[in-house]
Each structure stands twice: as structure tokens, then as C-alpha cells.
Write the C-alpha cells for this entry.
Amino acid sequence: MLPFQKNLTNSFYSVLSLPSSAMGFALSIQIAALSWLLSTEFGLDIHDIGFVWAAGPLAGILGQVIVGIISDKVWIWNGRRRPFIVVGGTLAALSLLALPNIDVISAALGINGILGVAIIVALTLDLSINVSFNPTRSIIADVTPKGHERTKGYTWMQTISGSFGVLAYFIGTFWNNYALIYLGVGLVFVMSVIPTLFITEPTSLEDESQPQSSETMSFFRGLQVIQPLWGFIIYSVYAFALRLAGIEVEHYWMELGCLLLTLILMIKTLAAKEQIQADGTSEKGFQKVLAAHSFTWIGVQSMFVYIIAFLNQNLPELSDVESGQVISASFLVLSIVSAILPVALLEPLAKKYGKVKVHAYAMVSMAIAYFALSHLGGSRYTIYIMMAFLGIGWAATISLPFAIMSQKVNAAKMGLYMGLFNLSVVLPQLVASLGVGKFLNQVEDKNLLFVICGICLAISALAWFSVKEDTISEESGEPIPQGAGGH
């Protein structure tokens, strides 16, 4: 183990954050360029674009859970996370290279339609990202102690990742998306592979305070754990099956039914008493995090996928290139804020007031910014201002929930639980891609996009206020006696 890891220096946290930042950079490229490419370069309508984006969450369902389970058990190349980070990062770089060449690939394969090839490329890219995302986040929990150092690891992750996100959107804004993609190929590969050589992974993931266990979670047990997400699963299967079969349904009975089921399961989960174990873990607490986090991602993913439709309605004078630049500039502002806040503001606030409370208020701010944006789309500058406010919630979304979740589960099964936690991201992403896309395709006023986003974030904020604060001291990493904290 190198001294900078043993002493948990800031340089160690920086290196530890690079693999996750590589995947974040690849995701930033996808966010900035995929919808724009499909709309302007290949002529797909908004519903088809949503269908292409649905390929990514499907990859996440398979990739993160399976890789999480496997990476908890294996030891290859002197690590359990390292091989998946290296392989996933290499595949992600190659997939980025294919992104602007969808038409070339289609012609080479003798396929007339663009949509099928676009789905394959998007699926390959997102599967590659998801193969690595779980291990890049799990390794942070593996090599940092519970408490403040764990929170610091995830806030540093977002600061470094957010800084590269700033670079991605800066290039897209002031150069072009093609330059962004080709630069990303090299950066994603280097930042995935090289840092893993300097990080020593522990040979055992068991906490000393926990009994050794080789129990493996069954499929049905896992399904029970993710009960708050059952409504998302049912709708995703239904909507994807209809889309594959080419069946158009005008009514929204299934959407309303699944929404009602999801709200019932969420209320049931949030109302249940959290049973805190001696080591601070809580399965019910983990379920509450799933419930609260899921609605955040309906709002966030809807913004990422359909902002192009919002811009086309509110700023019709923009050319294709200019609309791409406005999207990149919007997410540049979002990324600047989200890169600065985690270490500069969220970490000290979480240390003082608690991670859950800080995150809940960040979700409130995001909901307010979404509602405001639904009325302020007539100027690119008001869009940029609202994106800055959205950056507060985005900074929290991709840092604090990981620290909260990781302290509620068994460290020996971190990869598994990180994969299950990711379902609270990818299943809502499917709902955004299939359900929200269907709605926006049928309504004239695309400003309703951010009304939907605001409602989802408001629900998420209310749910987060029902999550119990961790019983692990931010100062020492030791369990806090019951009744000494939380809400």
C-alpha cells in the first residue's frame, strides 16, 4: 500500500476518484451528444430518441447488479474491482468511438434503418459504462472507513468527476460535440486503467465488527429488498414490450396504475420503522433510500433526454449546431456548480447537520428550480441561470446518496447492494425514456417537461425527509448510541 493511501491524503482521494470520473466523462458525452446527434444528424423523432435512451437503463439493470455480485467474490489482477474497471473503461472508449459513426456502421452492416444500429451502439456504450460504474463506486467504500472519511471519498469523487464534466461541456460549447467525443475516447481509457495501478484493494471486505458470512442473496430475496421499485419494474416491462411490438396506446391507465402502486409502496416503506443493527446497517433504511432516490432520477433523466425538445419550442431560431452548443453550455453551468459544491459546501454541511438532511434540502432546491425553468425558457441566459440552481441538487444527487447508502449495508456485499441501489436510477430512467417520452410526444407544450421534473423532485424531497440519519459518527466512524442523533 502506497503512503498516500495509508494516510488517506487528498491526493489519494483524487486518484481514487479518477476511474469514476472516467465513467462520468463518458456519460457527460452521452448526455451532451446522443440526443443531439440522433435528432439533427440522423433525423429521429422525440419518441424514437427516448427509445434509444431506454437501451442504457436496460444495460444498467443487467450490468451493475451482475458485476456487483461477481466483483464481491472474485480476485483477479490483485483486485476484485480492478478487472471490471479496466475492461469496462476500455469498452466504453471504443463505444464512444462508434457513437458519431452510426451511419457508417449501419452502411457497413448493410442495414437500411438507423434506429436499430443506434440502439445497439447506445446499449454497448451504456453497458460498458455500467460495467465500470459499480466497481468504481464500490472501491471507494472498500478502501475508506465508515463515517466522515467515507463521505469525503464520495464528495471528492463528485468534485473530480464534476470537474471533468465541466471540461466535457466546455468543449461541446466552445468547440463542437465531435471534438468532445474523440477527446473522450482517450481520456476515458487513460483515467480508467492507470489509476487502478496505484490503489491497493483489501483482500477481505468483511467488517471486523461483523460476523463472517458467505450467504448469497437469492433472486426472490433481492426482489423483496427492492420492493419500493416494483411499480417501475412493471411499467418498464409493459412499455418496452409495447414499443418493441409497435403497438401505440393513447390512454394512460397503465401509467396511472403503476404510479399509484409506486406511491403506495413508497409510503409503506417510508412509514416502516428502521431497525438499526449494532454496526449501523439497516435493510429497511436501504429500502427507504431506494424509494427516495428513485423519483429524483425520473426528473433528472427527463431533463437529460428531452431538453432538445424544450429548446426547439422555446428557441426555434437556433440552428442545429447552436442548439447543440446551448445544451452543452447548459450542462456546463450545471457541472461547474456540481463540481465546486461537494467538497466546498456539501461535505462540511453534512458533517455538521447530517447527510440526509442536507440532501433533502438540496432536492427541495432542485424542485423549485425545475418549476421556475418551466416558465423561463424564452432566453438562453435564463436557462443558464436556472441550470446553476439545478447544480445544487445535482451535486448532492451524485455524491451524498452513495455515502448514505453505503453505511446502511453489509460491507462484504457492497458490490451487490451498489447494483441494487443502481436500480433506483436505471428503472426510473426507463420510465423517463418510455413514459415521459410518450407524454411529451403527444402534447404541444414542451414546457410541461420541467413541470414533470419539478413534481418528481418534490416527491423525492418529501421522501428523503423520512429517511433516518446514519448512526455512524462522522467524526470517528463509530456507531452512535440509539437516541443520540437522527430524526
